[in-house]
Amino acid sequence: MERKNTTIINLLLIISLLLQACGLDKYVRREFTYTRSVDTHAKKIDFQSKKLYRAGHIFADNRFDGARLNDFTQINDSTYQVLITPENTPINPSPWYAFKIWSSRPDTIYLQLKYRYAKHRYWPKISQNRKDWTKIESFTYNADSTAVSFKLPVGKQALWIAGQPVINSADTKMWLDSLTSNPFVSPVRIIGKSLKNRSIYMLKIGQGDTKNKKIIVLLSRQHPPEVTGFLALKHFVNELVQNDTLTRTFYLKYEVWLFPLLNPDGVDLGHWRHNAHGIDLNRDWAHYRQPEIDAVTKFIVNEAKKYHVQPVLGIDFHSTFKDVYYIFDDSFHSVLPGFCEVWTAGIDRMVAPFKTLKSPYGMSQPISKNWFYKQFKAEAMTYEVGDDTPDDIIKLKARAAAVTMMDLLLKY
Ligand SMILES: [Zn+2]
C-alpha cells in the first residue's frame, strides 16, 4: 500500500514538473503559501438593522444599498448623534457611513458622527440626489478623534450624508450596461455569486476573438469604502474604450478583462472592509475560501486555459490616505520584465508637475497583486488613490495611466 502511494506521489510530481516545464501550470489554479498568511475562514458579523430612526422632529434612514448607520439619538437640545460601528473586528480603520436625514420642519442642527473601533477618516459629503456630492465646509473633532461634529441645515427634503459618494451594486451594473453600446465592449457576464447571492460582474474590452491575445485584468472594490479607487478605474476604462488609432492597434494584440465589483455584499451592506463572512477579500488570494475570490480566480484561470492565453498584467484599484502605486521590486522576473517601473515613470512624465508615490512591496501577503505574479508570472500593481484626491486629479492620472499602458505594451 505504501509503495503504491509513493508511486502515485512520484507520478503526480513528474506530471507537475512537466506542466511547469511546458508553462501549462498557469492553467491549473494553485494554492500559495505566504510568510504573512491570513486565516480567511468565515467569521460572524453584525448586520446593521435597516430602519427609519426618529429623534424628536429629526429622521434618519439607512434603508438603501450602501447605507451605514447603526443608531441615531438626540444627545442635547440641538445635537444629534449618528453611531457608526463595523461589521466585525479586528478591522482596518476605514469607518464608512452613509445615511439620509431630514426634519419635519426647517431647523439647523449639530450632527455628530460617533465611531466605535476607529477614528474619523472620511470627510463628510452631502447630496440632495445621491449623484452629485459636495464636501461639507468644516467640522470639529472630539478629543480622541473618535467623533466629529458639524452644523447642518435640515428640512423636509431628505439629504444624503456619506463618507464618499455612494456607488452601490445597482449603480455599478448601470455603468457596465452603459459601456456595452461601445464596439470594443462585450456583453456583461455574471461569473459567480457572492455569499448573499449578489452578482459578480465581468466584461471584456477588445476586438475579435480572445485567442492569441495577451490579457490585462482590472479589479476593483474588494474594499467597499474605497470609492476614489473605483472612480480611477472608471476614468481608466473610459480611456480604454475611446475609438482611436492607439486603441484599435492595442486591441489587435491585447484584451482587457474587467471585474469592477468584487465585494458586492460589502458594498451594498455598507461594510467598512469585509465581505458577508467578515473576511478581508484581499487576503484570500492563496486558498480561495470566500465565494467572491473563488469565483474570480477560477474564472480567470479557466478562461485563460480555454483560449490558451496569458494574463500579462493585473491592476487592482484601491484607496488609501494618498495616491501610491504598489509594484514589485527588481528582484521579480515577470513575463513583462520591469514593465510597472517604466509605466509608472511614463505616467509621472505625462501628469507633471503631479507625481505619484511608488512603493515596491514585498511578496509577503495573499493579495491579488501577488497572485497574478505567482499564478501567471504576470506584472501587477495595486493602484491606490488618496481618500481626498480631487476628481480632476484622479481623472488626469487614470487617463494618463491608460494611454501610457497601451502605448508601452505595444512596445513590449
Ligand atoms: Zn484596499
What does this structure look like?
The protein has 412 residues and is of the alpha+beta class. It folds into 2 domains: 259 residues, Aminopeptidase; 106 residues, Immunoglobulin-like (Sandwich), CATH 2.60.40.3120. The protein has 9 helices and 19 strands. An 8-stranded mixed beta sheet has the order 12-13-15-14-16-19-17-18, with helices on both faces. A 6-stranded antiparallel beta sheet has the order 1-2-5-11-7-8, with no helix packed on it. It has a 5-stranded mixed beta sheet with strand order 3-4-6-10-9, with no helix packed on it. A hairpin with a 4-residue loop joins β3 and β4. The mean pLDDT is 95. The structure holds zinc ion. Zinc ion binds next to loops.
Provide a compact summary of the structure:
The protein has 412 residues and is of the alpha+beta class.
Outline the fold blueprint.
Layout: H1 2-22, E1 52-55, E2 58-61, E3 71-74, E4 79-84, E5 98-103, E6 107-115, E7 125-127, E8 134-135, E9 140-141, E10 147-154, E11 159-162, H2 169-179, E12 189-193, E13 199-205, E14 214-220, H3 227-240, H4 245-253, E15 254-259, H5 264-268, H6 291-307, E16 310-320, E17 324-327, H7 339-351, E18 357-360, H8 368-376, E19 379-386, H9 391-409
Parallel strand pairs: 4-6, 14-15, 14-16, 16-19, 17-18
Antiparallel strand pairs: 1-2, 2-5, 3-4, 5-11, 6-10, 7-8, 7-11, 9-10, 12-13, 13-15, 17-19
Helix pairs in contact: 3-9, 7-9
